[in-house]
């Protein structure tokens, strides 16, 4: 599984269409999220597409199952989740997810429809980490 740095290095050298394909491929790599977890409680508000995020703990680490009904949006949530991959709740709270995503320049690479929900995705992940950290 590539690291965020590996993905960023590849992304930097790609043309716009290939960047879309890379995001779509990242979304395809997400672990499947059971339909039973795709509820109103796991829905990320403010996204133009439906995005669901569900926390899972394993050996002190907090990870997330996620899915979207839009391929590029699913890739974006996969990229967001890559920033907190294999971290415990406190490490997630200590991570500046926005700064980690900065090299991808998503706001300038994608339409505003596709990026409008990113702050809400980040907020949900941080709120979840805060609950688990306490």
Describe the structure.
This protein has 134 residues and is mainly alpha-helical. The chain has one domain (4-133): Sufe protein. Chain: A, CATH 3.90.1010.10. Helix content is 51%, strand content 12%. The chain contains eight helices and two strands. It has helices at residues 4-12, 16-28, 71-82, 89-94, 97-101, 106-109, 112-115, 118-133; strands spanning 51-58, 61-68. A two-stranded antiparallel sheet has the order 1-2. Helix 2 crosses helix 3 (71-82) and helix 3 (71-82) crosses helix 8. The radius of gyration is 14 Å and the shape is globular. The termini are far apart. The relative contact order is 0.17. The mean pLDDT is 91.
The helix/strand series, from N terminus to C terminus, equals HHEEHHHHHH
Number of strands: 2
**CATH class designation:** Alpha Beta
Roughly how much helix do the residues carry, as a percent range? 40-55%
Secondary structure tally, helices: 8
In the CATH hierarchy, the architecture is Alpha-Beta Complex
Q: What distance lies between the first and last C-alpha atoms, to the nearest angstrom?
A: 30 Å
Largest sheet: 2 strands, antiparallel
Mean pLDDT: 91
**Gyration radius over CA:** 14 Å
Structural class: mainly alpha
Remind me, CATH topology?
Sufe protein. Chain: A
Number of domains: 1
- Taken from the alpha-carbon principal axes, the silhouette is globular
Low-confidence stretches: none
Sequence of strands across the biggest β-sheet: 1-2
Q: What share of the residues does DSSP label as strand, in percent?
A: 5-15%
């Amino acid at each position: 599984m590539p690291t965020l740095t590996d993905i960023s290095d590849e992304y930097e050298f790609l043309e716009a269409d290939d960047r879309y394909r890379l995001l779509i491929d990242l979304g395809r790599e997400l672990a499947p999220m059971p339909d039973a977890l795709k509820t109103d409680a796991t829905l990320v508000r403010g996204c133009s597409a439906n995005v669901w995020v569900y926390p899972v703990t394993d050996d002190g680490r907090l990870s997330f199952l996620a899915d979207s009904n839009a391929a590029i949006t699913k890739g974006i949530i996969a990229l967001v989740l890559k920033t907190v991959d294999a971290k415990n709740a406190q490490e997630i709270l200590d991570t500046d997810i926005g700064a980690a995503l900065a090299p991808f320049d998503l706001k300038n690479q994608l339409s505003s429809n596709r990026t409008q929900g990113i702050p809400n995705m980040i907020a949900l992940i941080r709120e979840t980490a805060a609950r688990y950290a306490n």
